[in-house]
Amino acid sequence: MDLYKQIFLRKSCRKYQPEPLDASELQEIEAFIRTMRPLFPEVTLNHRILGPRQTKALLAPKAPHYLVISGNPQPHRDLCVGFLFQQLDLYLSARGLGACWLGGAKGRETPNGETDILSICFGRPAEPATRTSGTCKRKSLAEIATGEDSRLEAARLAPSGINLQPWYFIAEDGVIHVYQAVRKGLKALVYNLQELDVGIALCHLMLASEAIGKPFQFESRHPNAPPAPSGFAYVGTVL
Questions:
Q1: N or C, where is the chain less crowded by C-beta within 10 Å?
Q2: Pairing between β-strand 55-56 and β-strand 98-102 as defined by DSSP bridges
C-alpha cells in the first residue's frame, strides 16, 4: 500500500457515518498497526480502540471508533507517538476511511496506570476524506526551511495541532536537521503537543526518503547540526 501517495491526498475528517466498522476490518487495522515502524523501538507505547461511550471527547467529532494512545513519560515519547501513528492515519486514508488526530480525546478508564496521551478518531467518512491539489493550508517552504531537499515538501504537508506547523528544517549536504518551536507561558498552556507534531512530520520524511530509494535514518544528535533558529529547539537529524 502506497502510504507516501496519501501524504498529498489525506485530510482530517470531522464528519462520520455512525455505523461501526466490521470486526474483520478492525482486525485488519490491528494487523497493520503491528507492522508499523517505530522511531525509537525502546519507547513503549500502547493503544486500544474504543467506542464513543468509552471515550471522553469534549467538542470532538462524533465517530464510531477512537484509537486511544497511552504510555508512561519517557524521553522522546510524544515524538514517537506522532511518527508511529501517522503511519496509521495514512493507512486509513488509503483504505478510504476518514481519520482525525484529537488532542483532547481520551479513554474514560486507563489500564495499567498509564497516561492517555491523545486519540485518533476514525470511521467511514460522511464528507470528502481526501483533498485536491492546492487546497491544503500550509506555510510555504521558505517559511519553514532553509536549503533544498525534495523530501521537504512531504514534511510541509504534515498535519499539526490547530495547524501551528511548529517545525523548522535546515537541509544541507544530503541531510535534514529538524527543529521544533518552543512555546512558553500561556502559549504552552493552550497547546503543548508540538513534539508530537514534529514526529508526524518525521513520518512524512521517512516515507519521502523511501519513495526516492534512500534509507531513512534519524539520530537525536548530530555533530554538525547548525544552531537552532530563534524560537526553536533542535530535535534531531534525518540522514
A1: N
A2: unpaired
Encode pLDDT of 24-53 as tens digits: 999 999 999 999 999 999 999 999 999 999
Distance CA 81, CA 43 (A): 9
Q: Whose CA is closest to 207, among 137, 152, 161?
A: 152
pLDDT for 190 equals 63
Q: Which residue has the cell 484529537?
A: 102
Instruction: Name the nearest CA neighbour of 113 among 77, 81, 72, 76.
Output: 72
C-alpha cell of residue 119: 486519540
C-alpha cell at 218: 534519524
In order of 30, 31, 147, 210, the CA distances from 207 in angstroms are 21, 20, 20, 5
- Cell representation of residue 109: 478508564
- Asked whether the beta carbons of 64 and 121 are under 8 A apart, the reply is no
The number of CA neighbours under 13 Å toward the Cβ of 148 is: 0
